[in-house]
Structure formats: structure tokens, C-alpha cells
Amino acid sequence: MQNMEKRSSKGFYETLFIKLILSIFISIFLLSADYGVAGAEICLPQTAISKDGSVISYEVYGEGETTLIFVHGWSCDSRYWREQVPFFSKQNKVVLVDLAGHGHSSAERVNYTMRSFGEDVRAVVEAIGSTKVILIGHSMGGAVIAETARLIPDKVIALIGIDTFDNIEYPLTEEEKDKILAPLEKDFRTGCSNFVNGMISNSTAQSVRSWIVTDMSAAPSAVAISANHGYFDQYITGEAADIFKEVRQPVYCVSGDLWPINYEANRRHMSSFNAKILKGAAHFLMIARPKEFNMALNETIIKIIKDSKQN
């Protein structure tokens, strides 16, 4: 009986071990398939050093003459572009950036300004050696890519804002800023949850909504609040519009219709501005409506590349 028990116990652990090994292999296969890479060629994050010494994590997928730099928004990270990697890396080099204080990048900064975030992206562009770049920024990432274009104008051929640049002349006041930030400063998790929920369409799958809200609400509050101050201050001072005196590359948007776009205001400052609107889509359209979003973004990228070759 004891021998039978030993054999039974041995068989149980052998089976458990085999299942564990199979689980690991399946996970690796699914991960690599999810990002459009073959076999065990998983693209591990790389690092670049920003101007202030911050360590910036980034990932590179695919090859191509044109490099697409994807920059996330406030309290997000590179994972928010996971639905774009397989699609766009087939024809282009795709680079996902974690800004300082986000994702896998270091979080030792005192002030998280748009200029410092722009330096993060510049460090990545210089690290990969790209000379023909399209900057793609979601939400606050729009302000970041504008700063990046100002820093490396000779390498950037266009900017694409994702549900951002609604009105770069928006007359924000200190009082309005304080009203927005007060709930976040009082109780960040609850305040962020309420803040983000208002940016998500009612048609968005509940699983997607829950993930976005929970993930962003778990962001480091000090980083998030500092970044919000930096972002909103650009509208209070007028810097959100003034920066385009130096940034002369064409600007495009792929946006939802949650907030209207003031085309006239943007065109008073930008060298050119055009937008594609996905009806019924809200702020996180690259996650909630990935197929439609990818098609719209791809059309924009094709136009940019075509125009750049003609100029």
C-alpha cells in the first residue's frame, strides 16, 4: 500500500511538473504571437538615458524606413498600445516608450513636465538611431510629442495626436485647474477612477473599462499630479499654442467624438492640421475600437509618408 501511495504521489508531481512546463511554453508562444514575432524571439525592453539621468524603458518591434514612436498618455504606459504592435510592425519599425515615472521607467524626478517627457522621447529616438520619425501621442502624449518635435525637428516628419489637440487655445484658468486636481489630491484612487470613467464610452466593453480605470487609478499619485500640473499649466500660460511657432511639421489627429475639435484655433498656430473622427468612440479608442482605429491611423501614416517623399 505504501509503495502504491509513493507511486501515486510521484505520478501526481510528475504530471504537475509536465503541466507547469507546458504552461510556460504556451505562455511564451502566446506572448510572441500576440506581438507578431516568431518563436522565442520576444522583444525585451531596452533602456535609454534621458537628459536628467532618468532611465527610460522602450520596446522595438518590426523594421522599416519610417519609425513610429508611440507615446502613452497621463498615468498610462506602453501597454496601452498593445493592439497596435502586430498591425503596424509589419511595415514599419514600431517603438513603444514608457515616460519617466510610468511603466518600467525610473521615477526619481521632482517635477514631471512636458519638456522633461519630451527629453525622454528624444533619448529613445537617439538611442535607436532613427532619422525619419512619426511621433504618435495619446492624450497628454500630444503635448509630449510636440516638445519632442521641438527638440529634434530634423528627425520628425509629422505628429499624430490620438484624441488630443482638441483646442490648443483652450483658455484654462488656475481656478479651473485647481477644481480638476482637488479630487485627485484628496483621494487619488477614487478621484482618478471618477475622472477616467468620464472619458470612456458607454459602448466600451465592461472588461476594458474596468482594466483602464483600475490600472490608471493605481498609478503613482505624486507622478500623476505633477504631470497634470505640467500639462494644464501649458494651457494657462499659452505654451500649448506657442510651441507651434517652433514645431512646423504637419499635425494630424485620430480622435473620438466625445469632445469637439476647434480646427480654426489649431490652424492659427500649426503649419497644417487635419483629423479623422471615429463616431461614437471616446478617449481610449486605440483599446476600445482597435480595428477601426488601426485603419484610420494607418491611412494617416500612409498619407504622411507619401507626402514626405514628394517634398
UniProtKB/TrEMBL annotation:
One of its GO terms (molecular function) is hydrolase activity. Residues 67-184 form the AB hydrolase-1 domain. It comes from Maridesulfovibrio hydrothermalis AM13 = DSM 14728. The keyword Ribosomal protein does not apply. InterPro entries: AB_hydrolase_1, AB_hydrolase_fold, AB_hydrolase_sf. This is Alpha/beta hydrolase fold protein. Pfam families: Abhydrolase_1. Keywords: Hydrolase. The keyword Hydrolase applies. SUPFAM superfamilies: alpha/beta-Hydrolases. PANTHER family: AB HYDROLASE SUPERFAMILY PROTEIN YCLE, MONOACYLGLYCEROL LIPASE. Gene3D superfamilies: alpha/beta hydrolase. GO terms for cellular component: membrane.
